[in-house]
Amino acid sequence: MISPDTLLYIYEIPGAGEPSFPRPPDSFIGLWNEDEFAYLFFTASQDGYVQSCVQEGGLPQWSRHEVLYGDWQQLMPEGGIELGGLKFMSPDDATFGDDALLLDPSVVFGSGLHPTSATCVEFMSDLIGAGRIFRALDLGSGTGILSLAGAALGLRKIVAIDKNRLAFRVTQENVRLNGFESIIEVHHGEARTCIDKPADLVMANLPFSVLRDLVVLKDAALHEYWVVSGINREQADTLGELFSDNGYRVTRDRVTDPWVTFVAQRR
């Protein structure tokens, strides 16, 4: 766990895509690759290391940003939080109980405090509780929070995938912390590469552009339910139409301004 008063050193490298940074120092947290940018997270200044990697790789010049971890990540309160009837707690919380799920978000989105995560877990809980849902896909797993919830709610098999290497590692670690390795299978890669895997439920808390491209894929219609979030009302209307064209109907939605979460069920 990273302390709230730890100063993060974030190095932004444009045009890097998904570069290699060999033999990183002990202060290295991870690499966040986003489009054609690379973001390296450290707990200490590493100008020399980053400069040498940039020069060896023929990459553009870098910039550095500094921010306290407590300002970067929403911190889980002592005693944890409850989502969809489940309790999530930080691994270093002294009040930890056997009924809680452990979640260390590192620097990745998905601490459980965002309304999209909370609503996704609630909708998942209701769907799984109604029965006949045993397998799920977690597209864009982030911290793995939705996969952890699914496993705790009784799903037998979950495939989680994220194209970001840091999110992939964080999901893996949170799966390990909770002993769910036999239930949750974690992959690094694009969400579309898993869309043809058998599942009763798809969890997708993703940017609109990614969701739009996924929904129109032929294999998107293989699954009984989708829980979709990370979008605004206009984007939700567009996605609803795309789902309808692919044989689904929206059966439930909730607006937590500006965010929308909805359930699409195959007709």
Q: What can you see in these coordinates?
A:
The protein has 267 residues and is an alpha/beta fold. It has two domains: 66 residues, Alpha-Beta Plaits (2-Layer Sandwich); 186 residues, Vaccinia Virus protein VP39 (Rossmann fold, 3-Layer(aba) Sandwich), CATH 3.40.50.150. It contains seven helices and 14 strands. A seven-stranded mixed beta sheet has the order 10-9-8-11-12-14-13, sandwiched between helices. A four-stranded antiparallel beta sheet has the order 2-3-1-4. Strands 5-6-7 form a three-stranded mixed beta sheet. Strand 5 and strand 6 form a beta hairpin. Helix 3 packs parallel to helix 4 and helix 6 packs parallel to helix 7. The protein is globular, with a radius of gyration of 19 Å. The termini are far apart. The model has no long low-confidence stretch (mean pLDDT 93).
What CATH architecture of the largest domain do you see? 3-Layer(aba) Sandwich
β-strand percent reads: 25-35%
What percent of the residues sit in helical stretches (DSSP H or I)?
25-40%
- Taken together, the total number of domains comes to 2
Radius of gyration: 19 Å
Which runs of at least 5 residues are low in confidence (pLDDT < 50)?
none
Query: How far apart are the first and last residues' alpha carbons, in Å?
Result: 44 Å
The tally of helices reads 7
CATH class of the largest domain reads Alpha Beta
Largest sheet, spatial ordering of strands: 10-9-8-11-12-14-13
